[in-house]
Structures are given as C-alpha cells and as structure tokens.
Amino acid sequence: MFAFDDDQFLDGYRKHFGPLREDLAKALRFLVGRIEQDSSFSLNPVHRYQIAYCLATFKWETAHTLRPIDEFGDDARFERLYGPDTRIGKALGNTRRGDGARFHGRGYVQLTGRNNYDRAGRFLGLDLVNKPEDAKKPEVAYAIAMQGMKQGWFTGKKLDHYFKPGQLPNYEEARRIINGQDKAQTIADIARRFDELLVNALE
Predict the structure, then answer these.
(1) What is the rounded average pLDDT of the residues 168-185?
(2) Domain segments of the chain: what residues?
(3) Which of 24, 68, 105, 187 is deepest in the core (most CB within 10 A)?
C-alpha cells in the first residue's frame, strides 16, 4: 500500500499545476486518503503509473476540480443524447422514457447509462438504479472510477492493458479506457506530472 506525505503532495501539486485553492486541496486530500486505503494498490512502479493516470483522468473529467460532478447539460440534452430511442441510449441499456436524464454522467469519470449504474451498484451493494444521484458521492464515485478503470467497465479497456511490469507506461493509449483518443496527449502529459509528484510525496 502507498503512504504519502500530504504536505509534500500538495506542494508538488502547486509546483506542477499552479495555485491550490482550499476546495481543491480538500479534494486532493480526500483522493490521497482513498488511495492510501486502497488495498488493491501495492508499492510498485506499475501501480504508481496507474494511480497517476487515474488522477490525471479525474482532473480532466471533472474540469480540474477533482470533485465528482454532473455531466454538463440539462434533461432535454441528456434525452437527446441518451434517450431510449437513440443508438447510444440503447447501447447504454436505457429502456424507459427519462432514462437519458436519470442516468446522465456523474462522478469522477462520468458514469452514464442504466446498465452502468446497475453494474456499479451491484458491485458496491448500492441501489444506484433507484438512487442514481448517489453516484456523485465522493466515496462512491471513487470506487466506481477506480474499479471501472481496473475492470474495463467503460469501454472494455482496462488499466492492466497499458501499465505492465517491465514496460514503460503507455499513457497516450490508456485514454481508450474512458473515451477513445479524445484529449489523449493532454491527459498523458498531466499523468506524467502526477507521477513525478507521487514519487516525491512517497514517505
């Protein structure tokens, strides 16, 4: 398991990404605490690369707030995008009128669609189908994001495909875990900065 010097981590964030407001510092402390408690991560370079990439993804997907957020838009937009009569909506398992809005993107990585809410809820022992807003709770959103990226819930691609023992991290291609190659280089650059500050913050 990882143990970080929180002050060193926050100082590293300032060095690599700029000024740190109190709300952002609080969000970072929460994530560091969760990572330290995450028994699936051991103290090795592969897991450090994975953590760096997850943090970079969270930073990008949450508009740099590092807090779980709702996808941008209103119910009408979500129905146009994900309604049960749309191609994407059908692929996401949205079967009822209103599902597009009910199961819009939430969290650190924008969990979307009835099927994904159902799968994440069953894994966590929560009823996210009837209480989808719970996917935005930080502790729930963290579990969804990390488990989803480890197991390939979002696109079928997973962290182990791009971060392997004895190999350099494939940060650019790892974007396929979430969203094809959209902003792949930008997020890869963020991940490399996170990796550097993680190394410096390790106790």
Answers:
(1) 94
(2) 6-68+139-201, 70-136
(3) 68
